[in-house]
Amino acid sequence: MIKTKAFLIHHRPFQEQGLLLDFLTLEFGMVRCVAKNARKSRTKIPHFTLLDISLVGKSELKSLRGFEVVKPNLNLKKEDKFLLLYVNELLYRLLHQYDECVRIFNKYQTLITSIVIVKNIAKYWQLRLFEEVLLSSLGYELSYEVKSNKYYIFKDNIGFVEDKDGYFLGDDLQKIKSSFNDCPNEKVLKQWRNLSRLRFKSLLGNEPLKTKELFR
């Protein structure tokens, strides 16, 4: 039997009464398992909540033996849940089963805690910080070594390339880098969002995120 801390990321029907579950776990990364008869159970497995889960089975596809809520999350607002659904879709699409991702797990836990406390644009700041950790963990860390008075375009697998017709001003990119420590203003946050979308585009392929339209 395997026991680990986990967050439920995705679920879908499996056979007549079961569910196929994808968990982000502390020790094993993304783990897929089957919960038999879960759809007729009165006890639902909550999203955005830290869980202790127990898994059994010798194959890669485990079976869920049980779960316990470690810390209930009762204060999430509708906007918070939309943000976290977007994050869950990123994790579901981009992470491979059993790849080590302790840093992502810890940052996900921090994100859930933070967006309940902070307000307005600070929620989106926390979201951008999580995206940076996710991209870095996937091997796509970005260098922000640019000149403040020059314009740049972003190219996959290269980074920023100086271009007089570029979309990103070097000064704004430097402010994004500074925002890793302090919440930026709305203008910088918007540029950061646009940059994140470009960076994720090649990783996600032609299938758009289903939650994308929910976010500014």
From TrEMBL:
Pfam families: RecO_N. GO terms for biological process: DNA recombination; double-strand break repair. InterPro entries: DNA_rep/recomb_RecO_N, NA-bd_OB-fold, RecO, RecO_C. Residues 1-72 form the DNA replication/recombination mediator RecO N-terminal domain. The keyword DNA repair applies. One of its GO terms (cellular component) is bacterial nucleoid. SUPFAM superfamilies: Nucleic acid-binding proteins. Keywords: DNA damage, DNA recombination, DNA repair. Signal peptide: none annotated. Belongs to the RecO family. This is DNA repair protein RecO.
